Amino acid sequence: MESEPAALPDDALAEVLRRLAPHVLAVARRVCTAWRDAVDDRLCGSLLPRSVRGIFINFPGDYFSEFFSRTSTGPAIDGGIDFLPCLCMGVKVKDHCEGLWLCRESSDRALPRPREYVVNPATRRWASLPKRPRPHMPGFNHTAHLAFEPAVSPHYQVFLIPRVPWRLPADGESDDDDDNPSLESEWPPASYPIHVFSSVTQRWDETTFLREGEAAGIVANMVSYPWYDECRYYGVYWQRTLYIQTKNCYLTRMSLSDHTYRVIKLPGANELIGYPNNHHLGRSSRGVYCAILDVLNRLQVWYLSESCGRIEWVLKHHTRLKTFEYVDYAQQLGRQ
């Protein structure tokens, strides 16, 4: 590919670009500034007309995700997912990656195994996932995470990550947790079998990840926080790597290139009050970040540096936030 787009009339170049697959267009935009401008200028209003400008919030006790956005001068997606089937049962956005959403039914009338969907809000197209396979370990559950890189492939994957419940049943009929031998097992294990759904095969397959370095601890250390429910398991995908927040202030870094993983201690555990409740993973163009907000409204933003063979957290911001008074929160929120 040349350093500059071909010298064609605008309508002819637009027609050529329109015939390319989306992931090829994404690669073309990264060649140089001229190619990026050519793709954006000629396809504006056709292939790439809208974007999601806002955030989803899942409130406890609410069966739908609430979408918040600011008024925009350009075309934008309204955040509605009313085109999905069975919305009477409630659907929440559970994960997202590069414009795709992972949605799941959520209500007191939902099926024992709620249905899940991968949704493209720009095209309003969706695909229903097959039922999740059962966890390898009795009593455990899963959290699901999307992996999608349109510049590389138009296909996506969904990873089911085993989640230690807040309390494991004892071995046999006894209620004594000490009777369960699995409590003394390493967690995560040295060999980590993961169920993976691929949009290519349209089925769940099993992939084993091998641990590099030490485990976070033992299973018994991971079941002590009953408040640490599924919504605390944030995850982000960046450069063929899945980063998942887990219990006891750890991050699991899973490489999809060589099927290895390692656990990394999250930052700031001893510096902010109420830390385990208030850390959140995110991603930018540079990589993975972790934001921490404690009960005194102090905010820290850390960046995960992965250069020169070293992985370490670097503090980027430290400030104090001004927030609503708790007793007048609803009234003040209504006036904003």
TrEMBL record:
Cross-referenced Pfam families: F-box (PF00646)
Source domain of life: Eukaryota
Domain annotation F-box: ranges: 8-48
SUPFAM superfamilies: F-box domain
InterPro entries, A to Z: F-box-like_dom_sf, F-box_dom
PANTHER family linked to this entry: F-BOX DOMAIN-CONTAINING PROTEIN, OS03G0653100 PROTEIN-RELATED
Name of this chain's protein: F-box domain-containing protein
Species, as recorded: Triticum aestivum
